[in-house]
Amino acid sequence: xxxxxxxxxxxxxxxxxxxxxxxxxxxxxxxxxxxxxxxxxxxxxxxxxxxxxxxxxxxxxxxxxxx
Length: 67
Known about the structure:
4 helices; elongated
């Protein structure tokens, strides 16, 4: 069985990038928990998340679209 709950330390640059992504998502109207989920997923397109928010897509729907 593979342990999928293992934590790893982030490199300083990776930490700064994630922090910036979270800040950007919150600035565009996502809640802190939504921003965290989206920011930490490397497959989420940040620009698409911004466009959805700018065009009035509710964050809960955007979260479903993006993940």
